[in-house]
Amino acid sequence: MFTGIVESIGHIRALTPKGGDVRVYVETGKLDLSDVKLGDSIAVNGVCLTAVELPGDGFWADVSRETLARTGFVDLKPGSRVNLEKALTPSSRLGGHLVSGHVDGVGEVVGREENARAVQFTLRAPNELAKYIAHKGSITVDGTSLTVNAVNGAEFELTIVPHTLAETIMVDYRPGRKVNLEVDLLARYLERLLLGDKAAEPKASGLTEGFLAEHGYLKG
């Protein structure tokens, strides 16, 4: 679990395709790795990854086909800036909200306006996620815990203060930018409970061979 409070901005150093999925090397910048062990979790743009190697200035992790299909990882390349957060410990402050590190979908930045010293962003979520986004509710954008200021259909507004702009990759956001979205956990569990007996009915997966081939992770 995470809080959505970004601890460091890192960089992607390498992305290596491996048998249909990817191994990624993340340089972690100012993130303190002294208490990180092999097998520990680190959120990268809101995606929970497991450290499989710790060379000193970063970590290697494996990115599954499921993660490639459901997140913006397919758009990352060497040099891309990423938000980083280590997993919660029993003594951690819960400064944001409870975040699982399991991305629900990919949204898009559709507007950016100056608002005094802050910046107001308008983002569009996938239609299927719109029902989870509420005025003054919580949402995680690329691993950053944020409060929704307004909602209009599948679009929602965020007002980002200077500190958050300086400490996250949101300063780089421009219209057209794709972002990882994780909706509030409580909304997800409530929906599941309301399904009642229908929760036991199977649902088709959105992961396809065509998607992976299109993004270069399968060879024809």
Automatic annotation (TrEMBL):
Domain of life, source organism: Bacteria
UniProt KW Transferase keyword: yes
Top-tier EC class: transferase
GO molecular function list: riboflavin synthase activity
Pathway assigned to this chain's UniProt record: Cofactor biosynthesis; riboflavin biosynthesis; riboflavin from 2-hydroxy-3-oxobutyl phosphate and 5-amino-6-(D-ribitylamino)uracil: step 2/2
Reaction equations catalysed: 2 6,7-dimethyl-8-(1-D-ribityl)lumazine + H(+) = 5-amino-6-(D-ribitylamino)uracil + riboflavin
Record key words, sorted: Repeat, Riboflavin biosynthesis, Transferase
Lumazine-binding-type repeats, residues: 1-97, 98-194
Enzyme Commission number(s) from the entry: 2.5.1.9
Domain Lumazine-binding, first and last residues per copy: 1-97, 98-194
Signal peptide extent: none
Short name of one Pfam family: Lum_binding
InterPro entries: ATP_synth_asu-like_sf, Lumazine-bd, Lumazine-bd_dom, Riboflavin_synthase-like_b-brl
Record keyword Repeat present: yes
NCBIfam families: PRK09289.1 (NF006767), PRK13020.1 (NF009566), ribE (TIGR00187)
Known function: Catalyzes the dismutation of two molecules of 6,7-dimethyl-8-ribityllumazine, resulting in the formation of riboflavin and 5-amino-6-(D-ribitylamino)uracil.
Name of the protein in its database record: Riboflavin synthase
